[in-house]
Amino acid sequence: AAYADALRPYGAGTRRHVLNAVARSGNLQEASRLYSAALAAGDTSSSLLNALLLAHRESSVITDATDALALYSNAVDASDVVPDNHTLKLLLDICDRHNVLYKAISICDEAVSKGVKLDPLTVNSLVRYSCNRGYVERSYGYFCDSMANGANTMNLHTLSRL
């Protein structure tokens, strides 16, 4: 709470930078406080969401993806935050770790249907995680879509799995 109180008079950019630093340390509790303070100050953005998702990914105390998925849903539904590739990549990492990859894949598919263009890193993650889970046809579909949209050839290690 000390960070949140001390940052109250500063702008959104400063709050986001501090939140990112705290998130990278994996301190989910303090990152959550900073996120709440930023929301209370009227700051809603994908970078705030990404910082808290980063804290979820880096935290050693998280036992499932439920909180991260709820956070994403609340930010998108209540705050009209538009997910970006970093958001999607973080969700893929979190959901794969907790064996609910299909939920992150569904979110990625929904984002694409709403106009988000997947970058090569996100596509690589989709292909790799999908292959690891045995969704080979889906992996190949992501690869083909990416190539049809003009992406460069992806990581050779990932390609070897297809």
Automatic annotation (TrEMBL):
Domain of life of the native organism: Eukaryota
Organism: Chrysotila carterae
Protein's name according to its UniProt entry: Pentacotripeptide-repeat region of PRORP domain-containing protein
